[in-house]
């Protein structure tokens, strides 16, 4: 009887899992393992708590056989393979710069012992690096990428594995206890599927028209399950197609949003340095603000005390829930980069520290999109107006009041402009830390000054 190792990373599920099916071939007993790599989990953040909760769920679905080991995968994985007598270690291919480097090192370490790292599938419907132009180059712009991605198509979901023969008796550390309760409906594979199917039945139809309304909670909120691989985009795409064969507006738009996730993974695959450096060099000479006064303003942004209610509501939701609506991610990122004139990695780092769905490809390229250094550069003169954005996308002020108790005394849209109401600022809400119109002009002047310099 053979034994194989299945090393879980961003794929914490059993359904639609090609690497699991591969590890079961030849009737193998499967050792499921997760490595607590201190380079990634050195200090506990909301995201590590969420990960531990998801691992607790995986421990249950693997009949309590999940093996947890701490250390550097370059030694932990080859040691485990040797210990259990497995000739291959199965993974879903990792596509981030860190993951690729790590896996190459693990593969080399396994090879010294005659063992193999076998990668099957990725966290994406189409593996990064696959969608290429006729000339064989990567796409730099989203729309043609999305068209080619749809034309390429994707495989259907992998069949459910049925009863897996998990190996028993392999030593495991005790899984760190998550501060997040595993009873929370938001954690684990079954919860992800349930959330998805509710969205499909109740929200998809109106998704195109309502997805921009943070006050209505109309998006899928699947970014967190997708981050941990509790659900795979192939499953989503197949079920959208089956549910909505005629391709309604909601189905079309939702598919396009998933294409953004695939696009940014592809951009990162092609440009590993763009994780923390400007993708394009158009703004290399742009002057950014720094120093103690800027630090004070950035702290106010981080804590949701800028005096702009829509911005502050988003930043407070991030701190409280570890999630923020896409509209708010754009508005708050614009505020940091264009009202406070701060280089985007400062904000990207803060988001990654707090977002439960924090993903280096989507987050850092989302930031670059807003900052104007990334793909599809929006015209540099597009600076989000935080008040107008609030009035448009939270017309009754409900979202702002939910997150800012100091503004609950203001009714309707008045919550977006407390400085206009008598006593509006009297409940502890701060004055605006900068004047948006003035900073917008400053941004435009700075951009003008560097145009054509590269
Ligand atoms: P839905 O509207 O239900 O969309 C469905 C799925 O499509 C999402 O779960 C996500 O996987 C994908 N998606 C939607 N919009 C985008 C997008 N613009 N870029 C990439 N994928 C998208 N998304 C993350 O998953 N992790 C991040 O760290 C992240 N950081 C961001 C930072 C900034 C500055 C910006 C502007 C966007 C960021 N996004 C990030 C993208 C987007 O905001 C979130 O995916 C979305 O808000 C998650 O909510 P949802 O699952 O309800 O989305």
TrEMBL record:
Pfam families: DNA_photolyase, FAD_binding_7. The keyword Disulfide bond does not apply. GO terms for molecular function: deoxyribodipyrimidine photo-lyase activity; DNA binding; FAD binding. InterPro entries: Crypto/Photolyase_FAD-like_sf, Crypto/Photolyase_N_sf, Cryptochr/Photolyase_FAD-bd, Cryptochrome/DNA_photolyase_1, DNA_photolyase_N, Rossmann-like_a/b/a_fold. Binds 1 FAD per subunit. Residues 439-454 are annotated as: Disordered. Residues 2-125 form the Photolyase/cryptochrome alpha/beta domain. Residues 439-451 have a biased composition (Basic and acidic residues). FAD binds at residues 207, 219-223, 254, 257-264, 357-359. Signal peptide: none annotated. Keywords: Chromophore, FAD, Flavoprotein, Lyase. GO terms for biological process: response to light stimulus. Coiled coil: none annotated. Its cofactor is FAD. The keyword Magnesium does not apply. Belongs to the DNA photolyase family. This is Deoxyribodipyrimidine photo-lyase. It comes from Knoellia sinensis KCTC 19936. The lineage of its organism: Bacteria, Bacillati, Actinomycetota, Actinomycetes, Micrococcales.
């Amino acid at each position: 009887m053979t034994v194989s190792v299945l090393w879980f990373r961003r794929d914490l599920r059993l359904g639609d899992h090609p690497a699991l099916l591969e590890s079961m071939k030849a009737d193998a007993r499967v050792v499921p393992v997760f490595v607590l790599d201190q380079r990634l989990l050195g200090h506990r953040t909301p995201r590590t708590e969420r990960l531990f909760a998801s691992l607790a769920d995986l421990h249950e679905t693997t009949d309590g056989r999940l093996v947890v080991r701490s250390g550097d995968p370059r030694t932990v994985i080859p040691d485990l393979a040797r210990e259990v007598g497995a000739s291959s270690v199965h993974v879903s291919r990792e596509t981030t710069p860190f993951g690729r480097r790590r896996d190459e090192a693990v593969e080399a370490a396994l090879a010294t012992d005659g063992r193999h790292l076998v990668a099957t599938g990725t966290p994406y419907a189409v593996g990064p690096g696959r969608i290429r132009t006729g000339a064989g180059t990567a796409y730099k712009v989203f729309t043609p990428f999305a068209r080619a991605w749809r034309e390429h198509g994707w495989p259907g979901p992998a069949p459910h594995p049925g009863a897996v023969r998990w190996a028993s008796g392999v030593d495991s550390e005790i899984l760190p206890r998550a501060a997040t309760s595993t009873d929370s409906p938001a954690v684990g594979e079954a919860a992800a599927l349930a959330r998805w199917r509710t969205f499909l039945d109740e929200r998809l139809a109106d998704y195109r028209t309502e997805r921009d309304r943070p006050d209505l909670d109309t998006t899928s909120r699947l970014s967190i399950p997708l981050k941990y691989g509790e659900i795979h985009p192939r499953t989503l795409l197949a079920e959208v197609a089956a549910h909505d064969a005629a391709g309604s507006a909601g189905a079309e738009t939702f598919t396009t949003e998933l294409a953004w996730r695939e696009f940014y993974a592809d951009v990162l695959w092609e440009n590993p340095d763009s994780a923390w450096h400007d993708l394009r060099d158009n703004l290399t000479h742009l002057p950014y603000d720094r120093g103690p006064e800027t630090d004070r303003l950035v702290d106010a942004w981080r804590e949701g005390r800028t005096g702009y209610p829509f911005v502050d509501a988003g930043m407070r939701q991030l701190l409280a829930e570890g999630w923020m609506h896409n509209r708010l991610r754009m508005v708050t990122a614009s505020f940091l980069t264009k009202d406070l004139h701060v280089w985007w990695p400062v904000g990207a780092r803060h988001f990654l520290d707090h977002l439960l769905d924090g993903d280096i490809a989507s987050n850092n390229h989302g930031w670059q999109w807003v900052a104007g250094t990334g793909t599809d550069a929006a015209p540099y003169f597009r600076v989000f107006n935080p008040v107008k954005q609030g009035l448009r996308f939270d017309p009754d002020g409900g979202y702002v009041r939910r997150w800012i108790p100091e503004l609950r005394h203001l009714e309707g849209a008045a919550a977006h402009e407390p400085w206009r109401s008598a006593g509006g600022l009297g409940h502890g809400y701060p004055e605006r830390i900068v004047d948006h119109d003035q900073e917008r002009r400053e941004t435009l002047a700075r951009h003008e000054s560097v145009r054509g310099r590269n």
